[in-house]
Write a structure and sequence with these properties.
Layout lengths: L12 H8 L7 E3 L2 E9 L6 E6 L5 E3 L10 E3 L5 E6 L6 E8 L6 E2 L7 E8 L5 E7 L3 E7 L7 E6 L3 E6 L6 E5 L9 E5 L5 E5 L11 E6 L8 E5 L6 E5 L6 E3 L7 E6 L5 E8 L2 E8 L5 E4 L5 E7 L5 E6 L6 E4 L4 E3 L13 E7 L2 E8 L8 E7 L13 H8 L3 E6 L8 H5 L7 H16 L3 E11 L1 H12 L6 E5 L5 H7 L2 H11 L7 H6 L13 E6 L7 H13 L4 E6 L8 H18 L6
Parallel strand pairs: 31-32, 31-33, 33-34, 34-35, 35-36
Antiparallel strand pairs: 1-2, 2-3, 3-4, 5-6, 6-7, 7-8, 7-9, 9-10, 10-11, 11-12, 13-14, 14-15, 15-16, 17-18, 18-19, 19-20, 21-22, 22-23, 23-24, 25-26, 26-27, 27-28, 29-30, 30-32
Amino acid sequence: MTDATSDDSRQQPDWEKRFRAPRVSLPRWAEDAPDRSLFVSNATGTFELYAWDRATGERRQATDRPNGTVHGALSPDGAWIWWFKDSDGDEFGSWVRQPFHGGPDEPATPGLEPAYSAGLALGRDGTVVVGRMTEEEGTTVHLLPADGGAPVEIYRHRQSGGVGDLSHDGTLLAIEHTEHGDAMHSAIRVVRPDGTPVAELDDTAGGTKELGLSVLGFAPLDGDPRLLVGHQRRGRWEPMIWNPLTGEETELHLGLPGDVDAEWYPDGSGLLVSHSHHARDELWRHDGATGRPERIETPPGTILGASPRPDGAVEYLWSSAAEPPVVRSTTGRTVLEPPGPRAPRSVPVTDAWVEGPGGTVHALVQRPAEGEGPFPTVFDIHGGPTAHDSDEFAAGPAAWVDHGFAVVRVNYRGSTGYGRAWTDALKHRVGLIELEDVAAVRDWAVAEGLADPERLVLTGGSWGGYLTLLGVGAQPDAWAVGVAAVPVADYVAAYDDEMEALKALDRTLFGGTPEEVPDRWTASSPLTYVDDVRAPVYISAGLNDPRCPIRQIENYVGRLKARGAAHEVYRYDAGHGSLVVEERIKQVAQEIRFALAHLPGAGA
């Protein structure tokens, strides 16, 4: 339902085509049956899971739900497709499975009540490990025996955590946990399948150090207990190899300046290394025998996933701001093409480096193809907050550019990709620190003649939506229009209603609950500044959203209504965003229409 009707008269063909053009994710293949793959595509107009038999070329749509499906996995033998069944995007549900070549879905975790997912590990012998999270129980991990017996609880804690990985021979299980209370920095515990502890790796020193660990995967060989782990010991994410049976740690000194992720080659001979630096990605192979890294040639841009095949080739999903995504292989071929026309190109990004109050801020800038500026300018703020904007294709910013706007995307403090200190900087002054960095880039854009100071739009989704509402209230003279999608609007009410994992994250960010540190929560809540909002505000909200729940948005909207402030609200029947292409197009059309209607002299 909506408070206002949509006027689509200003839609332009190219931006609609970008949304409607079919897309695919990086195919993931079964460990012991590499010809069987699973990928996500929007070929039908809704994002769903697809099975792909590479031996025969057959592709089959595996799921078909009104609000889409994106969370799935293949059993190691390729016999089963597992997918997570929630209700209309609320993220609360259970795992089901179906045969790879088709057949009815069946419950995959009998004996376990629905919950938020906290990970899944599928053993080669049929053993299954399921992580769950609920407000009542916190995190629980359960083993489902290969013989079909009743699930056995092997881990429980009030803090957030989940399943990391199961060793190749099924004798070891890695669990990420935050028992020390810092939800931004996990520790790792390795246990036997019955829950018996084996070893602990914890860089937080009981919560006194802000150093995190992540499970990247066990070695792909029977009898090999080595676990690939991500660590932050040198100020950024890097991989190391840990043997939980002996305690031996082997840090990999790759000499790369940015964040580094890695996964094993299927034969265990080396590692595929993904390096993210200054909003662009590259691939390397780290040879296990020589210890030397070797660059894998890929075009400049962003790699949204990469995986090595048994034959040594690497498949990767690549795009740039100007070029639509494509699944490529190091063999030189295109791996997978969705049906239908490719999305039209957009304009490339340029880099801006701006001095801010906490250090140099990196921003990505897209200019309209025509005109000299200053332009009406959209500051499109990314979600997370532990994420970052990169040189990748995005239909939303491209749509704004098509309508004559410049688009600026800011990797504020709190973003990943610029070192641990940058990511962790926003604690206790949540939202306000990010807005300081956005303000510095905004001032630069105006001074450079890029942005018209009278026609500035602040927009974003999720955390970006939160910063939008906080910004139009805390910086009321800076913005002409605010456009917020699935935002946090009343932070205390959001905390009361949101999913348990986010409650744990918020306690870490603020240093306590709303009752324990009320001043911090008040200072960071958009509701605190709602009476100062002068810009017209557009808000879209999912009725089933567990991350930014609807009640707290209604609280904010009620305050806008009470003072007669210009605003528009669009409510839709889904969760934290929509997986339906036409719904996405509708929302972007309404956002652009709203901005054009309220900006002085913006034009059509």
